[in-house]
Write a structure and sequence with these properties.
alpha/beta, Rossmann fold
C-alpha cells in the first residue's frame, strides 16, 4: 500500500492548537505547503476544525487538523472551542502555536496541561518570530518560527517527525495468526445497509492483511457460506464474519476451524480487547431502564435495518428480557458524562484512529462504566464468545465471569 493509499485512521494525526490570531492557520499552510486553511487578520477565521489527509515529509502519511482558537468568545465561540477540544482525543502529535510577540497565555498553559494529561507529545511553536527584536532561549520542545518568512519551518517539521508515535511492537489485524498458503474465508453479508459497489473499510483492510501474510482470502455472503466451504479442497485456517450474522455463521463453520469477526479483530488491533471482553459480562446484568449508550465512530445514513439503532437494541432486549433506556451517538460526539451510563456498546471503530479508540475505552474505564464493542457483544449474546476468541487463547481465558 503506497503512502497516498493509507486510510485516514492509519495516519498520524497532527493537531494545531492555539489562540485566535496567533497565526495558527498561516503556520498550518506553511508546514503543509498548501493553502489548507483560510487566513485572515480577523480573529476567529477558523470556525470549525479543518482536516486534510496528506503526506508530510519526513514523517509520511498524516492527517493535519487546524482547530478554532481556544479563546473564542460568545455562544458560537463556545461551540467552536468545544469542537476544538473534541480534536484532542484523536491527536497523536500536538503543535501549540503561540504568538511570539505576546508569549504564552493562561489558556496556552491549560492546553499544555491537557496535552500532558493525555500523554500527547507536543511542540510549542512561537510564531511571528520575524517581528521579534529579542529572543529568549527556549526549551527543547519549543521553537521560534515564522509562517511569513518561512524561518524554521523545515526544522519544525523535523521536530514533529521526531515525535511520531513509536509502537512497542508491530500490530497486525490477522496476518500474525496466519502462515503462507493458509486460506481464510471472509463472510460479507450484502443487505440494505451494505454500500453499493464497494466493500467497507474493515473488509478491505482485513483482505489486504491476509494477502500480506501470503495467505488466500475467499469472500462470500452468509447465504453462500456452506456451499463455499464444501468447494474448498481443505478446511480454511479461519473464518472471519460480519458480526451481524455471527449466530448463523457459527452453525455452519466446523468446530475445529477458528471463527472470529471483523469487529473483534479491530478491537485487538486498535482498542483493548481484554477490556471489551470484561464489559460483555455487564450485558447479562442489565435491568429495566438501564442506561445504555450505543456509540459509533463514524456518521452514516441510518436505514431501516441499522445495526446501531435497530438491530443492537433488539438483540440486547431479546438476550436480557428487559427494556433499557438508550442513548445513541455517532462521529465525534462522545459524551463527557460516561459515568451516567450502565454500559457502553461501541462500534468496531474502523474509522477512528488508535489514539481516539484508546481514549474512548480509557474514558469509560476512568468513569467506572463497562464498555463492549459490537463484535464482542453480539458473540456473547449468541453464546459463542469463547469460540470467537479462539484465535486469542490468552483473552479467552478471561471468560470465567462472562
Amino acid at each position: 500500500m503506497s503512502l497516498n493509499e493509507t486510510v485516514s485512521a492509519e495516519r498520524v494525526h497532527i493537531g494545531f492548537f492555539g489562540m485566535r490570531n496567533a497565526g495558527k492557520s498561516s503556520l498550518v499552510n506553511a508546514v503543509t505547503g498548501q493553502k489548507l486553511s483560510v487566513v485572515s487578520d480577523v480573529k476567529g477565521t477558523t470556525t470549525d476544525p479543518v482536516k486534510k489527509a496528506m503526506e508530510l515529509l519526513p514523517l509520511g502519511p498524516v492527517v493535519i487538523i487546524d482547530t478554532p482558537g481556544l479563546d473564542d468568545e460568545g455562544e458560537l465561540g463556545e461551540m467552536r472551542v468545544e469542537k476544538a477540544k473534541q480534536v484532542l482525543p484523536k491527536t497523536d502529535i500536538a503543535v501549540l502555536c503561540v504568538d511570539a510577540s505576546v508569549g504564552k497565555t493562561d489558556k496556552d498553559n491549560s492546553l499544555i496541561s491537557a496535552f500532558e494529561e493525555r500523554n500527547i507529545p507536543y511542540i510549542v511553536a512561537y510564531n511571528k518570530a520575524d517581528i521579534l527584536k529579542t529572543r529568549e532561549e527556549l526549551p527543547k520542545n519549543s521553537i521560534y518560527v515564522s509562517a511569513v518568512s518561512g524561518e524554521n519551518i523545515n526544522e519544525l517539521k523535523e521536530k514533529i517527525a521526531s515525535l511520531s508515535p513509536k509502537k512497542d511492537a508491530e500490530k497486525f489485524l490477522v496476518s500474525d495468526l496466519l502462515s503462507p498458503g493458509d486460506t481464510v474465508v471472509l463472510v460479507i453479508p450484502i443487505d440494505e445497509s451494505a454500500p453499493k459497489g464497494r466493500l467497507i473499510l474493515p473488509q478491505q483492510q482485513t483482505i489486504r492483511d491476509i494477502l500480506e501474510a501470503g495467505a488466500s482470502a475467499v469472500c462470500c455472503r452468509d447465504t453462500e457460506l456452506q456451499v463455499t466451504l464444501k468447494k474448498l479442497a481443505e478446511k480454511p485456517k479461519m473464518v472471519i464474519t460480519d458480526s451481524q450474522v455471527f449466530g448463523k455463521v457459527s452453525k455452519v463453520v466446523p468446530q475445529d476451524v477458528m471463527l472470529t469477526s471483523f469487529s473483534i479483530l479491530f478491537a485487538r488491533y486498535k482498542g483493548d480487547l481484554s477490556e471489551l471482553v470484561k464489559g460483555a459480562a455487564k450485558l447479562s446484568k442489565l435491568s429495566d431502564g438501564a442506561r445504555v449508550l450505543i456509540s459509533e465512530g463514524c456518521t452514516h445514513h441510518r436505514q431501516c435495518g441499522d445495526i446501531g439503532t435497530v438491530k443492537m437494541p433488539a438483540w440486547i432486549e431479546k438476550f436480557t428480557g428487559v427494556k433499557p433506556d438508550y442513548t445513541f451517538t455517532s462521529g465525534g460526539d462522545y459524551p463527557a458524562n460516561l459515568g451516567d451510563f450502565d454500559i457502553i456498546v461501541h462500534c468496531g471503530g474502523c474509522t477512528l484512529n488508535e489514539a481516539e479508540m484508546q481514549y474512548r475505552i480509557r474514558a469509560a474505564r476512568d468513569a467506572g462504566t463497562p464498555i463492549v464493542n459490537y463484535g464482542v457483544a453480539i458473540a456473547h449474546m449468541h453464546g459463542i464468545l469463547r469460540r470467537s476468541l479462539s484465535p486469542f487463547p490468552d483473552i479467552s481465558a478471561m471468560l470465567e465471569d462472562c
